Amino acid sequence: MLVLSESDVRSLLSLEQLLPAMEAALTSLSRGGVQQPVRSILPIPQHQGMWGLMPVVWNEVMGIKLVTVFEGNTAHGLSTHQATIQLFSAVTGEPLVVMDGRLITELRTAAVSAVATRLLTSPNVKSLAILGSGVQARSHLQALKLVRNFTDVRIWSRTSQNAAALAEEVGARATTLEEAQRDADVVVAVASTTTPVVHGAWLAPHAYVNAAGAVGPQRRELDDATMQATVIVESREAAVKESGDIISSGATIYAELGELVAATRPLPVIGSRLVFKSLGVAVEDLAAALIVYNAALGRKKVTG
Questions:
Q1: Residues 163 and 97 in one domain
Q2: What is the Cα–Cα distance from 304 to 297, expressed in whole angstroms?
Q3: Which distant-in-sequence residues (6+ apart) come within 8 Å of 161 by Cβ?
């Protein structure tokens, strides 16, 4: 059984590889080709953390991601999200590989947002607002630049120094929360939050929103006015259990992203208010881990 570190994963995986892999995984999920329960969550209240278990079976491979979220890690210079992913043969049950999952979580989340952005926005969009300044802010900017040419990038963070530092690093501009969203073509919410940071009153009528910062039935990142939109998700089953934005607002889910990729549901009107509420699902991690595993072997051995 292989054991791969984060540096191994980094050397074997790219955002460019992940976009088509995410399309294939989500299409298969929406077509019923994936066995995937909603993740199990074990709270660790004594340390303000949580532990998530995300199993999945996809054709001849099985996988599980074990992911932790400890918000206090930033005070110790650690990532708030830690993870490992293990793959097994679905034919024999034998373990194949265990690998670090932190980077995969970071990159596959951004790649899925890029797939949705390419599908749900006009090629002519120019302005991008990123709400957050952590690893997801950086990876989303990299991923979205693969599918759209943004000439006006705005950064907001609860810590203004972090927003300014990221803006200088990537050639963007740091703004207030309202200024970031006003008239933006695309808004990306990747700030860890329990209360809304995206406000419908500030959004342009044509705004498209990627929301990936709040996971859990009690957490919100989008206010009710924002949720008066056409809403797309990765998994209906997961969204109605894990998205506080959908549960609390009573929003109707229009489609799964895989349905739109496969054209089994018509695309919504591009240029109308659209929200992609991303929660992350296990088949995305499995698809990314397969790329890494096969690259480590030096030949294609197993597929989803």
A1: no
A2: 16
A3: none
